[in-house]
Amino acid sequence: MPLEDELGDILQKARDGKAWSRNDLVKATNFSNEDLQKIESYQWTPEDSDVLKLARALDLDGPALVDIAQERWEPTPPSNDPDFDLVCLNVFMGEYPVNCYLVRCKATGETAVVDTGANPKTIIAKAREMGVHPKMVLLTHAHPDHAGGLGQLSQAFECPTCIDHKEPKPGGSSNFKVVKDGDEIPLGNLRIKCIETPGHTVGGVSYLINQTLLSGDVIFAGSMGRANSSWNDLFNSITKKVLLLPDKTGIHPGHGPSTTVGQEKEHNPFFKGQVK
Questions:
Q1: What is the torsional sign of CA 253, 257, 258, 262?
Q2: I need a surface site. Which of 67, 150, 175, 274 has the fewest CB within 10 A?
């Protein structure tokens, strides 16, 4: 699975963090506006020396940014957890790929759905193939690619939907269980810890099971989510919560490949050197 973000995406998100327009980056680097537009629209990858210049201007780690720009890095998948099965369904909302997940406790068989991928039929079919009847839906946030089709899932499985207390409730279900930071949700022998990770949305939440984090759109391998709610909140969610977890903690995002805390601390241009 390719990285969710390319060089152009990272530059745009880094500009957002500084509240810079493209013209501000022009002034800081002496690139032309036309050249920056080409980079941000994936039409041109500049030489390494120019990528380093962009990284310095945007407070990104230069070597990590060069590796992503030249497609020289991809994460090693995290280890499987012995206590549960984690099935990633890479589905599509239109042409846009989205990850949703089925979590099954190995000891009891109890199962949960994490996000919908706006593709409930695929989830229902996979649950039937696995011979499970999900007990709950866990939403990381309420955007349509993560909560679309919730009504079909709620009807098929007759189960509640967990959502953070600050997140607007999506349509499709009247059976919501509101969660807050630190809450633990039982699933068979598992305890799923809720970690509030706002910034992409006002009520974003990640779900930690042992040393596996289902993170929605907070952080991606080699990048971060888009700060639709607050860039500072999103940055702090990652640096003060996600990346303080043990290095071997697996990160399973809403888009792109899975990674680990340790790999993001070493290879993510936003966060290399930011967390000890």
A1: negative
A2: 175
